[in-house]
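User: Here's a protein and a ligand (molybdenum atom). What would the complex look like?
Assistant: Let me lay out the input and then the predicted complex.
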Amino acid sequence: VKPLPAAWFVPHDTNAEMRWEALRDADDGPVVGRHVPVERFFVRNHTGTPLIDPDRWRLRLFGTGLRGAPAPGRAVEFGLDDLRALPSTRLGALIECAGNGRSFFHRRQGHRVPGTPWALGGIGSALWRGVRLAEVLRAAGLTGGAVDVLPTGLDADYVVGGTNYGPVRRPLPIAKALDDALLAYEMNDEPLTPDHGAPVRLVVPGWVGVASIKWVGSIEVADHPLYSPWNTDFYRMFGPGHPPAGGAPLTAQVVKSAFELAEGARLEAGRTHRLHGRAWSGTAPVRLVEVSADGGRSWRPARLDEPARADDWTRWSFDWRPARPGRHELRARATDRGGATQPERAPFNREGYLFGAVVAHPVTVV
Ligand code: MTE
Ligand code: MO
């Protein structure tokens, strides 16, 4: 993982969490635009970052969903230049870890959950360039019978608790694969960096981050459902109120919002502060953001500072003039055009996925 400037990241084991205040260094300091610079973008690695020679890298496609059903040893191969020769697409899209916000299951709802204790910084937006997965699947001989597509990463096997789960890989239903999934080779107009999946990663807009497989080396295309631990043992809802084998594999991220402020940020009393934040949803553009400065008793709409989009976050702002010094709690609450609003409590699940409840953000007024 990249070196971690403490002003930008909170380290968690092999992961690096973006600090929200790093999007806005100070009240009037430098501001990060819609897309997060690569050096400030969060990193989530199950194991370690592999260094792959782009000249020797090959993407191998095989399986019963391709013409002639090539076996792994007879895969259809693409090099980086082959991908670059196909029509390219640029797409501004978020990647958000399914576990983003997980620490609030404990901090707000009293549930201890295992896994990376993210606050809200397991997310970032970037401008991706690459070739649509649909394009590559068709070039490889996709048949009408294909059901599932299984991209596999070239990172080390994931070994935990004495079990080797093999390389990180997760099946994607063919409908999503053909809809908007991108095989990206650039991030913010530069070649991908090793931490973010160089030379080529998948970007699956709106879906849990694990769908966006980094360092992709092969893609199996099958005319039957495929399984991997990442859609059976992990990334389902487990625990009370959920089916014994877990709910359906997780797909879209839920509606959320965050302030571009440090926890416990200090603000001056008696003057108006323009508070900034971002809101997003994996299923629909954001329609409304409301802010409360009185513990959730009253809410006022924030200003949406740009047109909302489906795949990206929307920046918003809110003027607040705190009168009285002391500790205050700010809250933001987003609603998307599908009608989903951030709830007071998130549905508990054993692994702490999809925490989308309203979060109290403490600030100190001086
Ligand atoms: N792909 C591979 N091969 N190995 C991984 O560990 N982590 C996934 C996904 N793709 C992962 C992966 C998870 S859980 C997330 S949230 C995103 O990558 C994070 O992408 P980023 O590190 O570029 O922010
Ligand atoms: Mo993740």
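Summary: The two ends are 38 Å apart (CA to CA).
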